[in-house]
Amino acid sequence: MRNEETKEELQGLEKELEELENEYESLENGDNEDAFDESIDEMSKVKIGSLEYNASRVLKEMDPIAYNCGLSDFNDERMSELEGEIKDKKDEIKDLKEN
Length: 99
Description:
- There is one protein chain.
- The chain is mainly α.
- The protein is 82% helix and 8% strand.
- Helix 1 runs antiparallel to helix 4 and helix 3 packs across helix 4.
């Protein structure tokens, strides 16, 4: 019974690891604009008269260099977090296989 539980736990950890690695790969490819835009838009909106715009759109249109720098920083931070999570997950898998 314990062996079957360990096998299921191992499969779950490997699936989680794969998801983390896929997210990391998508960040390397720059596929994170939506999450970056959401983070900016949650902080503020740009209001001109009675019109309201998403801050991410305004930044992207008015200062694409600043937008791209912000996106790069945003992705770097998330990639750094993921590197730690991936390492921890690999350690968990290794420990489980050794026991």
